[in-house]
Amino acid sequence: MHAADSSSSSSRPFVNSSDSRPRVCILGGGFGGLYTAIKLELLMWPRGKKPQVTLVDQGERFIFKPLLYELINGTAQAWEVAPTFAQLLAPYPIQFVQDKVLEVQPEQLLKTGGSSTGGSVRLASGGTIEYDWLVLSLGAAADPRGVPGVREHAHPFVSLEDAEYVAQQLAAYEARAALGQPPATVAVVGAGYAGVEIAAVVGERLKGKARVVLLTPGMQILEAAPPGQREAAEQALQSLGVDIMTGWKVTAVRSVAEAAAVVAAQPAAADEAADPLTDRQASMYQQTTATSNGSSSDYSTPQQPFIPVSPAAAP
User: Fold this and answer.
1) Cβ contacts of residue 1 below 8 Å, gap of 6+?
2) pLDDT tens-place string over residues 256-290
3) For residues 55 and 33, is the Cβ–Cβ distance under 8 A?
4) What is the rounded CA–CA span in Å between residue 94 and residue 121?
5) Distance between alpha carbon 289 and the CA centroid of its chain, in Å?
6) Which of 257, 271, 288, 308 has the most CB atoms around its CB within 10 Å?
């Protein structure tokens, strides 16, 4: 069976139930899911035991996230960073189904929550996939809960569409600078490996054309990294003109109109803003200061508008 699209599916099962070979269904086409599917195909199996493998993902493309940022500065093409599953799986008899999973229905449930006989996966298109073994490799997603305005005004950086959107915005900021307009500000929230990498790439592209800010609630960037690596990263960011703001937590993201209302209602707080950010959206920050009991101060200041970009791996 070759890569297949779910657009022609109905309520029929995708896997041939008359085939006596084990049926393996893998949900999620990230690194874990894709590599599991290919590895199962390449392993040596006893006669009649080689499994039928079906890979399910709601996207058409596999996203090589470590290189996603290269789409920002034009050092890679979309097909290099995000090849289609059809291309990647063409050499293998692995069935690919592009669809969204609605429900997993295991049969003969065990006390541990598993199943002794497999089950079926119900898809949004109306199709079903019967399985003997189910692999869950769904990955993670950015969680906007807990920070008002993030869903409406911030932008994640986890997909091909995200990278293309950010690249378009940066091009607009370059054009804005060429016209002599006030420089924009790009804020990258999260100073883990992904956040630092994105800040560096954006800083390199917009150096002298816009302000780039890297925000983290921690007391330093790359907190889990060796000291030497952290210091090298700080030096690189500083050489690119990236402003590093440690000990600051984003507590809200607001529109320009909402920010203006907050500033009008709290003029004193606006006067105390130590480091205003300027662009199309606004934020609220809470500076975290270490205390003996590990709590943080309640200092909260409305800042000027900005556009935040939140990497998936942000702490």
Assistant:
1) 16, 52, 93, 94, 95
2) 677 667 667 765 544 544 444 444 344 433 333 22
3) yes
4) 17
5) 29
6) 308
Instruction: Judge whether 246 and 213 are in contact, CB under 8 Å.
Output: no
Closest residue by Cα to residue 56 from 105, 20, 95, 93? 95
Three-class SS of 42-99: HCCCCCCCCCEEEEEECCCECCCHHHCCHHHHCCCCHHHHCCEHHHHHCCCCCEEEEC
Q: C-alpha 17: how far from its chain's center?
A: 36
Most distant pair of Cα atoms in the chain: their distance: 78
Let me know: does 310 contact 145? Beta carbons within 8 Å: no
In angstroms, the CA 138 to CA 27 distance is 6
Average pLDDT, the chain: 80
How far, in whole angstroms, is CA 193 from its chain's centroid? 13
